Each structure stands twice: as structure tokens, then as C-alpha cells.
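Comment thread on ticket #2218

A.B. wrote:
> Attaching the input chain for the structure job we discussed in standup.
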Amino acid sequence: MPFEFDNKDLRIIEGLGIYNPRNISKLARELGMPVEMVRRRIRRMKSQKLLWLHANIYHTNLGLKKAVVMAEAAPGYEKLLSDCLKVNDFWTYTTRVYGRLEGYLGIYAIPKDHCSDFERFINKLKELGISQNTQIFWSTCFQNVNPTTNWFDFKSQKWIFPWETWLKEIATEKAKLPPTLRDPEDFPINGDYIDIFILKEMEKDASINFSEIAKMLGLTLQDIRHHYNEHVVKQGLLEGFEVAIFFDDTISDIYFFDFRFPDMKRMAKFALSLLDKPFVFFLGKILGQPGIVGQLYLPRKEFKNFKDSLSSLIRQGFLQSYDYTIQHSGEWSRQTISYEFFKNETWLYNHEKHIRTLEKLIKSSRS
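C.D. wrote:
> Ran it. Output below, let me know if you need it in another format.
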């Protein structure tokens, strides 16, 4: 782990995931630390890019369906593929991947009535010769997994990875998943433009002062607080807060995994066992299937041990199969929710514009 962290930092990071970045005073009280010291340490870690604090939107309750795209680039068109994936207005994250698949991974939040349009958009990449192969996983919203210290040894100041203990733990887990990892019955639009604007700003910085958002919208502070408390929170538009830290990236890698199981019960046990592990960033359930997708972050020396653990689960009949790609830690992009395309309480998804822009971009690159 980066040497800049100490025990107090780690306790603060763990507490941020419990009490959320908007309640620093309560966090300081619970930790028995002066509030200004807590704020100072948070500012330092953020300025050194050791700590990220973002709101994690529950897209399901905004009428948006999560899609994960794996796109293998046609040789020579890697950079163009990245640009093409961002032509669609509803992308949220892209990253270069390599290993089994050389290309890009994209994450999208697509209006529920335009899923078939989106699939046609992704298939167009192959038709136009930019991608050799594409795969779409329709997923629930992502369950964020915030850092905990249960795999950190404060005495030695090192992360520990007791894989055998984890394997035993999986078998004893209850099989009840949190709402985020269950197939939703519907994708209602429970928010309005102001709610989505607030969420957009909190995606950038979860600790933003509401008075700043009020100035942007020309509203009062009371207006913003009302929308946050009565709409964002009560209508379930916020899954939680993403608190992200990193091991030393010179000896660690980020992976995107696709896990498949014989049945929902074993899938649930596996997923629940990962919700307090420091090497997991997020999990999502593949809609209608006993499958989980997730972003994991592991020291290289532990990756083989993790794969050995997965092999043990396969031999036991617990895990059916898995696949993964390695993400390029220095080549990724993210954008906030596409608030500018929400008008009159509905999402504006322009498939024809996406295709025209895609064709124009590819034609320009080849001229």
C-alpha cells in the first residue's frame, strides 16, 4: 500500500464508507478525533489522489438500465474504438483492457425504452470494422464496496489475504442479496431535473457544499436541501457513496471479472462474501442470470492465490466458470450522469444521431 497512509488515515477511510462523506462531524465523533484533523487528513489524501469520494447513483430508479460492454478492437483501431464508444451520450466509464481481450470496456446507463437501440449501436462498431467482437452484459445497478480494514494488519502495517478463510466464509453466508444486486421489477423515473443535477455534482465530489449547487441552478439552499432529502434520499436515487483507495499501482492491477454460477443461491453467497473485502471496487448482477460482474483490484503476487481459490470453488461445484480482463490503470475516462438529456421528465435518446456521429467519426479517421 502507499506509504502515505497511516492507521488514522485508514480508520477515517473506513469511517467514510460507514457514515458517508457528508457527515464529517459524526465521523470525527465516532472515531474520537478532532473534526478539523479529520477534515485536514481527507483534504491531504484527496490532493495526493490517494482518495476519491463520489456519489454512486441508483440508476434503476431514474429509468436507466446498466450495460457493460466488452469490445475487442480491430488491429490498429484501438484509439478510434475508445472514441467511438463515447459517441453514445449515455456512457459513464471507459477503460483500455488487455489479456483475453485487447480493446475497451465501457459502462453505460441506458434509458429503459432504448436498450435495443443501444444494442444496434454497439453492433454497428463491428459492422464498420472498428471492433472484431463485442459483448453486452445487462446488469443491475452496481453495489459499491467501500474499503474496510478487516484484511489489514495494523501491527505489521500490511494488507493480508487469508484466502482459505474466505473460502470457508462463502459457505456460511446467508443467501439474501441487497436490493442493488437483485433483478428490479421495473425502472421507474423517480426524480426530476433538479434531483439529477444534484446527483451529477455529487458524482464529481460527494462532499460538495449544497450552497454551490444552489448558485449553479439559481435556487435557494433550502430548495436544494429539500430535493436532496425528500427526493434523492427518500426516492432511492442514491445507492451510496464511493470511497476509493488504491494499493501501490506499481505492484497491483485492476481486473474486470465475469463470474457464472450453477444457481442463484450460490451466486448470492459468493457476492455477499465480497461486500466487505478490500480488493473489490463494485459488483453488479447480470440481469436474469446467476452471474456477477465486478471490478477487482489485487496486488500481483496475490492474483494467483485468488485464481487458485476460484479453481477450488469450481472443483466444489460452487462456481461454474469465470472470465476476466486486465484494465489499463492509466487509460480510463468517466463522466457523470447525462443530465443534459433529461427534459420534461423523460430521457432523450437519439439513436439516429449516435449512428450519424459514429459514421462521420470513422469516415474522418480513414480519410
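A.B. wrote:
> Thanks. Noting for the ticket: DSSP finds twelve helices and 15 strands in the chain.
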